[in-house]
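Thread: "does anyone have the structure for this chain?"

Original post by V.I.:
We have the sequence but no experimental structure in hand. Need at least a predicted one for the grant figures.
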Amino acid sequence: MTNSSSPLEELHNAIKKENPFNKELVVTKQNVWKEAFPDVGSINAHASDAVFDAVEQVRTGQRQVIGITIKAEKGLGKSHLLSRVRHQLQAEGGAWFVYMTDYNDLNRIKPEFLKTLALSLKEVGSQGVTQWQELATALANETMKKPYKSQQLVNVFPNVLAKNPKVIGQLTDKVVEIKTDIDNPDLIRGILWTLSKQHAPYAINWLSGKSLSQKKADEMELPNDSEDDKDHFDITCQILDLISDYNPLVVCFDQLDGPGCDDSGFTRAQVIASLGTDLYNSLKRGVLLTAMFPEIWTHQIRALELNDAVVDRIGERVVELNYLNYDQIIDLVSRWLEKFYDEKKLTPPQRVYPFTEETLKELGKQRPTARRVLKWCQTNWGLPNGQQISSHRPGINPVSSAYNNEIKNIDNEEYMEDDSQLTNAIKFGLNQLIGQIVAGVTIEKIEAPVKPKNKYLGVKIVGKQEGNTVKIGLAVIQASVGNRVTSGLYHLGDYKKYDLNRGCLVRSKPISPNAKKAQEYLKNLKAQAGKWVVLKTEEVKPLIAIRAVYESREDYELSEEQIKDFIANTKLAIDNRLLREILSAPSEEIPEEAVDEEA
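Reply from O.Q.:
Generated one for you, tokens below.
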């Protein structure tokens, strides 16, 4: 022991009490946006350097758009690399950042991307405010000829708005005079509204393509077109054009190995490659990053009919991530331990204590991934004399650990507005109940998509109740107002077209009494043994979380069987009140629990 190190007894007590590696080692969306894993700059430095070189080339006008594909095997750090890019851009500025990892409806990928764009720009940028507010400040400064800092303008804006309620309209008119290539003044108005903390959540919802309550839309002077009537990609392109006037944009596509295809049979990676190509052709200043396994690049992207056009754009530059060498293993382990010892105010005798560099050197001969090294540390944590400390907390199985990791990362506000995400979570839960009796219904099969194909009914439940066949159509409709609610209820009540004998609306918000057609179709649905089940955050969150675990099961190193056992043992699906309500016999009452979003 060196003279400067802490007493061994104190070190050993800390080692016995806590295993710093005893946490989920999968990088989630929250790690990208919020708290990052400890980062070792030497690991895959060539890849992050390639990204920042591309950003600099775009920023200085040498290039307009650059597409980079990051190829790497599982566990080599694709998501961690994107997290590094995000956090460095947040610290230093130079570009705004968009990160897409949820792909809930591959048939409507352009509306999905607009939603991702809006939610990404809601995250805090390099100036302590959201990226939307940085853009709004840039627009306002250009019209007012004043160099406001974003934080400064956001802080004073409530008072400005209180003194002059017409300030948004006045600023909008001035911006439109300058931005002659933008043919949608309402888009400018929506962006400027993000400067008001009170109005920003509504503005961002509207910018993501969603409708607002009519009262809020009137207050903010924003048109309330039906979500189905909007040209989502045109809106996306106009937002990208505005961004390009002030900053390059880094757009990242992650988790491209997931299951599912669109109606034409294209995989998730192929759909995103096509979208990436469209974005490449539309961006004025940007860097496109796609992260994928090498076999997906070879067998799915290069297999596309238009592979040359796609590869020349999203794969203009290809960067491969590397396995860790000995020095990088030492750097990785010491970085995690540095954080651990700093928090305990302890100094170890050497930087990888209680491990030895010789032991880690042996591990390096196996060309491990970063995740494998951290897993090894998790399992082998213990005192130098060989006394091993349990790597798992008593009673917590690996599925439960992954589930808890996912549930804490759920953004209620984001997910409760996402019809596709909610539908997929409910569908996943229902699929776990096939063959079981729930609320008197023996579930035989879950059909999705519902035939004939439509935008509203996401799931059809087929089963038996007291000897009779039950066919329940399910529609999750969270839109505030407009044609989507009315059309959804109309389709849900068309039992003949969809071969149903019950319909179920899942929704958290009330339906305005002034929406006469929607109220008429709701009444008709109830007259046909249909029902409205109120969607509650606490009931749908477990379904969203366990589906996320299932989707990322390879990253968590879990089998389908382990996950199904967990669902069965915890009764997560069969006791879920939302699923039971969907399956239970209808009542005549209209729910009183729906939450008014204006409240």
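V.I.: this helps a lot. Residues 326-344 form the longest helix (19 residues).
O.Q.: and Residues 204 and 356 are 51 Å apart (CA to CA).
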